Amino acid sequence: MFTKKGDAAVLAKLGQAPARYREIGERLHRIIRESAPSLEAIVRWGLPFYVKNGKDICYIKTDKEFIAFGFGEVVNPAREEGAHMHPVAWTITSLDAATEARIGALVKKAVA
Q1: What is the number of alpha carbons within 13 Å of residue 30 lying toward its C-beta?
Q2: How much is the pTM?
Q3: Which domain CATH number covers 34?
Q4: Left (φ > 0), alpha (ψ -120 to 50) or beta: where does 67 sit?
Q5: I want to staple 77 with a disulfide (CB 3.0 to 4.6 A). Which of 14, 41, 109, 111 is the partner?
Q6: DSSP secondary structure string, the chain?
Q7: What is the pLDDT of residues 34-91, one digit of tens each?
């Protein structure tokens, strides 16, 4: 498994996304870094991951048709008590202030 570490590696990977998703990816990166600066940014399996103590916290997946943001199944801040299904990833079509705030809150909860 080939891993590149650091913000520059992640931003370079996000820079390869189609233009319509590149900006969203870069904004997601900023939200994650501002919400949890202790996370280590890496590129693994061709995806930007954000890890803490070796555990995957969240990731960004770009494709020519979509961009997705998700959490690892083990550390999932979107898990709801009593629910039978738990979201781990979302396809993002655009970002507004409310969505950015929700993502930031989930990232903070994941690293708490």
Answers
A1: 9
A2: 0.90
A3: 3.90.1150
A4: beta
A5: 109
A6: --EEESHHHHHHHHTTS-HHHHHHHHHHHHHHHHH-TTSEEEEETTEEEEEETTEEEEEEEE-SS-EEEEE-SSS-TT--TT-S----EEE-S---HHHHHHHHHHHHHHH-
A7: 999 999 999 999 999 999 998 999 999 999 889 999 998 777 888 888 888 888 899 9
Contact 50, 71 (CB under 8 A): no
Domain count for the chain, please give it. 1
Q: Which residue has the tokens 């993002």?
A: 92
Q: Which domain holds residue 20?
A: 3-111
